[in-house]
Every structure is written in C-alpha cells, then in structure tokens.
Amino acid sequence: MSDRLPHEKGFHVSWDQLHRDARALAWRLDGKGPDEGNWRAVVGITRGGLVPAAIVARELDIRKVDTISVKSYSHQEQREAKVIKPTQPDIMENGGEGVLIVDDLVDTGNTLKLVRELFPKAQFATVYAKPKGAPLVDTYITEVSQDTWIFFPWDMALQYVQPYRGTE
Ligand SMILES: O=P(O)(O)OC[C@H]1O[C@H](OP(=O)(O)OP(=O)(O)O)[C@H](O)[C@@H]1O
Ligand SMILES: O=c1[nH]c(=O)c2nc[nH]c2[nH]1
Ligand SMILES: [Mg+2]
C-alpha cells in the first residue's frame, strides 16, 4: 500500500446510519420486483454487500439469499476485479432476471461491471455511490464525491478525539 492516501475526504458511516440507509434502499426497492413486485433472490457482493443485503432481505421478506465474492481493493489500492466465489447456478438462470444484487457502494464501477456481465438482467442496488460508478447502479441512496473515501462501521472503532481548543 502506498503511504499517501489517494482520497482527500472521508465519509464516516456509523452502524446506525448504515442501518437507516440500507432500510431506505429497501423502501425504495419495495414492490419493484418483476414477479408481482417481488424478487426471487438477493445476492450480496462480499464482503461489503453482506450487511446491506441482509437488511434489504429482512425488510423485503426475501428468504433466498446468496453471495458472489469479488475482490478489487487491497486497503485503498485498486487491483483488477476478480470473482473468487460465484453464486449457485440457479441464481444465474435467465441472466439473473428477478434477482436483486446488493453492494455497499460503487466507486469506479469495476466490480459492478464484472458482475453485470454475469447477471445482465438483474437489478443492481448500492447504499452509496460515487459519480464514476453511479451509472452502473439502478438504485442507490447517497452520492459522495469521487475523492471521498467511505469508511464503514466494520472498519472503525470508537476512540477519544482532542477538543478543537486544546488545553495547555
Ligand atoms: O466500484 P469499484 O471501484 O469496483 O469499488 C467498489 C467495490 O470495492 C469494495 O469492495 P472490495 O473489493 O474492497 O472488497 P470487500 O467488499 O471485501 O471490502 C466495495 O465493497 C465495492 O464492492
Ligand atoms: O471501504 C471502502 N470505501 C470506499 O470509499 C471504497 N471505494 C472502493 N472500495 C471502497 N471501500
Ligand atoms: Mg466489495
């Protein structure tokens, strides 16, 4: 990893905020599936999509939940996106028609580009989006600028911060 972080800003998301935003995503998707408003399955893109996928599946009462494992970043360094583990074969039937694919965010769009090739007819949803990748998502909740790094609750810990006016 380089010692200079490539992102100017940080957007720090708490568990509570993520829960609210993932619920807002579910609310936006509610009733929009092709089978009387329903989807036949939810697929979370691991690892970041696991928590939002679980929340969306709970809210929309979707019991069939699968995963596809894609790795494209090592810390903040981007690598080539690779599928490490595919879904069950039946999820891929009919180009993924009726399947809702969920990730935590889209950044450059490389991950979704790869997954879209495998599931051309699925619906793609992320909680957060950056402008470069946003056109690859059908539904998202919050957009942040391209030079912002999103920090998720599973990557953070509570810690003491100095007051703005220090005591001497
Ligand atoms: O739009 P892109 O530029 O492809 O970036 C977005 C992807 O990068 C992160 O995953 P990562 O590969 O870091 O793996 P992880 O989910 O296991 O943390 C994030 O969870 C998205 O899946
Ligand atoms: O935790 C993360 N935050 C981000 O902003 C990001 N972009 C790609 N991959 C990412 N992972
Ligand atoms: Mg990911």
Automatic annotation (TrEMBL):
Encoding gene (name): gpt
Pathway entry: Purine metabolism; GMP biosynthesis via salvage pathway; GMP from guanine: step 1/1; Purine metabolism; XMP biosynthesis via salvage pathway; XMP from xanthine: step 1/1
Organism listed in the record: Thioclava marina
The keyword Nucleotidyltransferase is assigned to this record: no
Keyword Ribosomal protein (UniProt): no
Superkingdom: Bacteria
Record function comment: Purine salvage pathway enzyme that catalyzes the transfer of the ribosyl-5-phosphate group from 5-phospho-alpha-D-ribose 1-diphosphate (PRPP) to the N9 position of the 6-oxopurines guanine and xanthine to form the corresponding ribonucleotides GMP (guanosine 5'-monophosphate) and XMP (xanthosine 5'-monophosphate), with the release of PPi. To a lesser extent, also acts on hypoxanthine.
One GO molecular-function entry: glycosyltransferase activity
Bilayer topology term: Peripheral membrane protein
Cellular localization per UniProt: Cell membrane
UniProt: guanine binding residues: 107, 150
Protein name: Xanthine-guanine phosphoribosyltransferase
Keyword vocabulary terms for this entry: Cell membrane, Glycosyltransferase, Magnesium, Membrane, Metal-binding, Purine salvage, Transferase
